[in-house]
């Protein structure tokens, strides 16, 4: 079974600071997102069971070192990597990302299963997997916590809060995975060294037969901020018991408790 | 066992500098760095003296990501609530190529790691080396987790703690007596505020050191370096003094108390603490420099004890970069001769001895002893403050003449047997 795993590199969220309500990403390194690593691990596990080849596919948005960073995917076990890097893709929307990825999947050719994380650690739109499935006309299973190959199909389990759902789709198919699916392995030094000689290609939009105009964003995100809440600045005096009473009363008065 | 030509343990400035030199000459190099990226775990005060290292890798230093060239130097002696500051802003500090810049390691080291990668070296972050492999006294490679990788030469640049090198018997275990503990905060302030507070032209920076009460009489001092849009404010205290103090206070409390002083508060007012870090510093001087090379290995940077705290100038980064450069040159020579034994790598120590690195450390040989004199951090800051304070004080009594006031202070605080002894011990620094 040949598997393509879409891996996105995100700014390392631990390193991003917020200043004046804006994320400071200057000098923040990028790395492959955690959910993408789950998807990659799932692919490596499937390959162990069903054979085939794993290709990591990365669209380099805003990360000029993507071709370097994607080597982590090779060290984790992917056989090959493809990076789509083009200046026209500086700030694409989800539609453009999906268009470019779908074109790349077609160009890669052999693909029985296309894996995604359920969302990316930075924007978390959760749209890209479904959009690519739509463009390619493939069946899609979202939020899988288990993936198995059964004959010519993929069988997935997903958690629906009070029940587990088991779905099967004929291959080729698209599956997005959640973090419970596995614990990604941390590659050892030897694997990292071996990754160096694995094939890695960098494609531009022209290589995919796309032009920038096709990918121009249809929406522009002007601002993306959590709602600002004013603090009440209420201080309580007295003994611990008095403070607790006053606190509970205040919560009731605010309508937070005892509704 | 998989083999590479050179393994560099530690992607700090020393390790990266060595890797840059080696990769530039086409050697096969792998840098292993425990942190998420180079710079993630590295701590410095904040000032890199660039003049000494310009001739190594000249293409690098004009484009390095510095914060500000240091145009103004200040040193404050503080005791008994009096702060006396000496200040110099010289045209020569910044004319042409400035002699020093403030830096932030997260940025500087990451940039250098990228340069090293561009030269063809493999820089592997998130990779902790667990052991230096030795066979018949020769260092033959490293072990990281399950994986053992062989190398013709290992450049050990693991920083100050020497966990690997002391375990492998290449260096001794670090002793508290020869180290200081440093910790600092990066406090964000707008560029304009920084330039106003330290009276700087746009883009220029200041370096401000403090000694005396800030360390409660312990060996050490405080430092403040201005970055582009933040200041690095921290403290360095002798580890032995810190261990022996009896007041139960924690090291970080000193910094908090320092920030609350009426003379310091306005300098940090309105700032946001963005980062906190701590690290130890080798301060043993040249007498604590270990054997620099042996069969199959060299040691560089802090691992080799190459740092120098001379009270008003603090150096370690320039030594780290220089030692990395010389290590690379020595390894290249050894490669040419096909001899990676101690003899084949001997040019490393020779070139360090010829260079400013071991020469400046030699010149400063007596500094660690002088610094152990507590009067440096108690009596003198107080005496200077008292003297100047008296000159500037007008109260309701008839005033003595200025010269008389000054003389009184000099006689009281500087003309004692102890001072003469101190002066004698300091004659060589
Ligand atoms: C508070 C403070 C203030 C200072 N102020 C100044 C100053 O103003 N100017 C100046 O020039 N110097 C200053 N110094 C000294 C200077 O910072 C150091 O001398 C310099 O950082 C040494 O560089 P290095 O590369 O030898 O070590 P480091 O920068 O410590 O690099 C060692 C690297 O090795 C890695 N490592 C360690 N163990 C392993 C392992 N097992 N496997 C893989 N990687 C490992 C670490 O993660 C680290 O990245 C200051 C130091 C401190 C702490």
Distance between the termini of chain B: 50 Å
The most extensive interface between chains reads: A-B, 15 and 22 residues
Number of domains of chain B: 3
The fraction of residues assigned to DSSP E strands of chain B is 25-35%
Globally, the shape of chain B reads elongated
Q: What does this entry show, briefly?
A:
Chain A has 259 residues and is α/β, with parallel strands linked by helices.
Explain what this protein looks like in three dimensions.
- The complex is a heterodimer of chains A (259) and B (429).
- Chain A has 259 residues and is an alpha/beta fold.
- Chain A has two domains: 2-215, HUPs (Rossmann fold), CATH 3.40.50.620; 229-259, no CATH class.
- Chain A has seven helices and 14 strands.
- Chain A has helices at 34-50, 66-69, 71-76, 94-108, 128-136, 189-195, 240-253; strands at residues 3-6, 9-11, 17-19, 22-24, 30-32, 54-59, 80-84, 113-117, 140-144, 146-150, 153-159, 164-170, 173-177, 200-203.
- In chain A, strands 9-13-8-1-6-7-14 form a seven-stranded parallel β-sheet, with helices on both faces. Chain A has a three-stranded antiparallel β-sheet with strand order 10-11-12.
- The longest helix of chain A is centred in the first third of the chain and has 17 residues, at 34-50.
- The radius of gyration of chain A is 22 Å and the shape is globular.
- The model of chain A has no long low-confidence stretch (mean pLDDT 92).
- Chain B is an alpha/beta fold and 429 residues long.
- Chain B folds into three domains: 2-66 and 104-172 and 290-354, FAD/NAD(P)-binding domain, CATH 3.50.50; 177-282, D-Amino Acid Oxidase, Chain A, domain 2, CATH 3.30.9; 370-425.
- In chain B, 34% of the residues lie in helices and 27% in strands.
- In chain B, the strands form four sheets. In chain B, strands 1, 2, 7, 8, 9, 10, 16 and 17 form an eight-stranded mixed β-sheet that branches. Chain B has a seven-stranded mixed β-sheet with strand order 5-4-12-13-14-11-15. Chain B has a two-stranded antiparallel sheet with strand order 3-6.
- In chain B, helix 1 (13-24) runs parallel beside helix 10 and helix 10 (317-337) packs antiparallel against helix 11 (347-354).
- The longest helix of chain B has 21 residues, at 317-337.
- The radius of gyration of chain B is 23 Å and the shape is elongated.
- The relative contact order of chain B is 0.16.
- The interface between A and B is medium-sized, with 15 and 22 residues.
